[in-house]
Fold this sequence. Notes:
By secondary structure, the chain is an alpha/beta fold. It has a single domain, classed as 3-Layer(aba) Sandwich (Rossmann fold). Helix content is 33%, strand content 23%. It contains 8 helices and 10 strands. The protein has helices at residues 14-32, 91-98, 121-130, 147-152, 158-167, 183-195, 213-228, 240-243, and strands at 51-62, 65-76, 80-84, 106-111, 114-115, 132-135, 201-205, 232-236, 248-253, 256-257. The strands form 2 sheets. The chain has a 6-stranded mixed sheet with strand order 6-7-8-3-9-10, sandwiched between helices. Strands 2-1-4-5 form a 4-stranded antiparallel sheet, covered by helices on one side. The model is unreliable at 1-7 and 31-49 (pLDDT under 50).
Amino acid sequence: MLGPALIGCSGLSPIGIADKITTSLTWVILRKIRSYLPVSKQSTINTDKSQLLRLVGLSKSYDTVVALDDVSLRMGVGEFVGLRGPSGAGKSTLLYVVAGLLGPDKGSIQVAGSDVLEMSGLEKTRFRKEVIGLVFQDARLIPYLDIRANILVAGGDRTRADQLMFSLGLEARASHIPEELSAGEQQRVGLARALVHGPKLVLADEPTGNLDDVSAEAVVLGLRDFVENGGSVLVVTHDPRVLEKVDRVITLEGGRISS
């Protein structure tokens, strides 16, 4: 399944290869999410914990490259946390591990009171569908679906999708396909997709890295509004436009949290 991710990897560093693999993993989730059973109304996932995220002693290596080295972190409900650090520090790896897209070599992950590492593959898919929203730097929209359909890939309903399109200034673009949108509009679609199913925790990987000031502000305000309404956000970013809006900033360097 991951074979296509390795095409063109000749000459890449281990971190570069790892990035291609994790990109392939996230596409698998986005493309196949509707092939799994719908979320049960009797869900066992506990989303009422004041301590939403708890990581203890997380470590992850790619061959000889250490991406995460004994990382521990706690986040509460309603927190907006920025995660910064140099390229290759393990920031994206941390997000993918929290989302259950990658497994750590050791450590524990609790999100909304549930142990992610104890979940089966189907349970992790349901966990992402119920609890996690993912925002990527390049939006990763499905090119042949219109904007509303791209948003609804993550679940939710048409009414909620339309509300998000309106709040993010996309209502006139509902029937357009991704190539007809600007980069900023595409990223707003990606944010709407991350929010449409009512997640508890949004994991955002450099969501404003390629955007102009107007588009970046729209994305940041969307995340801030989500937090003010009880959600939580962990965002990987170097962007001062984002960092000035977060509640606290954590630095990850050499696989370790340094502040």
